[in-house]
Design brief:
single chain; 33% strand; globular
Length: 299
């Protein structure tokens, strides 16, 4: 993928004021007599009431809102390698498609993986489709800011399920916070709130017009993009596999960077390349989005 460009002016985006919050949980305000918000949870899921987890060199220093903000995490110390822990929302009913937003933190040298699914069946284990999958350490320290994830779920969805799988050792606590499901039309999700502090302001992001050619900027993919699973940055020329991929980046230069998915040794799990959140209200009147792609390979 090459040269992602976003600018204001053409693509109409719905912005209404009648957003319906179907489900919200920041693990701080009791809605069911506990701080789980009615969510079911198995095995190693715990709630941290502020600060870091009980194990060293893993987990965030605080919840997504900072301070003594609660969050959910899997305490993997003492559990079996590759053991799954499942956390699921209570059953909900949608009248139209909705937006799922959550924050995650994955710091630790032996972090396993986190999978997020929506399920259309009669239970949180039936009719499930994967929206998000991330394996291994995603954050370099406990103080690294939480990462926001946002996905559209269909009107047929009844559950959202978070499955954390333990890695090889105790430095693999996986954390989730500020889960929101909003009916289509919502402009943004509610923010997490620490029990003794006011809500933090929504973060600002890059301003439009915004361009990414993968040649300069912050982060492993440049331009503040985040990539999961098998996304890689190629620093010029062909990919590492024979008989697939472009011979060079979109500009034609032998040193032109581009993003690609390295499939050698991989599986069929999806890989996501996510743009950063843009500064507030820049797309209220619409925008355009363009990119270049290359898909060569017999399989």
């Amino acid at each position: 993928m090459k040269s992602i460009i976003a600018s204001a002016g053409a693509l109409l985006l719905a912005t209404t004021t009648d957003a319906q919050v179907t489900f919200q949980c920041s693990f701080a305000t009791p809605t069911d007599g506990t701080t789980w918000c009615g969510m079911s949870h198995t095995n190693n899921w715990r709630i941290d009431t502020g600060g870091s987890t009980s194990s060293g060199s893993t987990g965030p220093n605080a919840g997504q809102a900072g301070g003594n903000d609660n969050y959910a995490y899997t305490e993997v110390s003492g559990s079996a390698t590759h053991s799954p822990s499942v956390m699921a929302t209570p059953r909900f009913t949608l009248t139209r498609q909705a937006n799922l937003v959550f924050y995650y933190h994955m710091y630790g040298a032996t972090t396993g993986n986190l999978r997020v699914q929506y399920c259309t069946g009669s239970s949180p284990s039936s009719g499930c489709t994967t929206l998000f999958y991330r394996a291994g350490q995603a954050h370099s320290s406990g103080s690294t800011p939480w990462t926001r994830a946002s996905y559209t779920i269909p009107s047929t969805a009844h559950y959202v399920v978070f499955t954390s799988v333990r890695g090889s050792s105790f430095t693999g606590d996986i954390s989730v916070d500020t889960i929101s499901i909003l009916q289509a039309g919502a402009t943004r999700a509610p923010t997490s709130r620490a029990p003794t502090r006011t809500p933090t302001a929504a973060p600002t992001g890059p301003r439009l017009p915004w361009t990414c050619d993968f040649n300069s900027g912050p982060g492993p993919f440049m331009c503040s993009l985040s990539g999961t699973n098998r996304w890689r940055l190629n620093s010029g020329g062909g990919t590492s596999s024979y008989g697939t991929g472009p011979s060079r980046g979109q500009s034609g230069s032998s040193t032109d960077n581009y993003a690609y998915i390295e499939m050698s040794g991989g599986n069929r799990n999806p890989s996501y390349l996510t743009l950063p959140s843009f500064a507030n209200n820049q797309l209220a009147s619409g925008g355009t989005f363009s990119f270049y792609y290359h898909m060569y390979g017999a399989t």
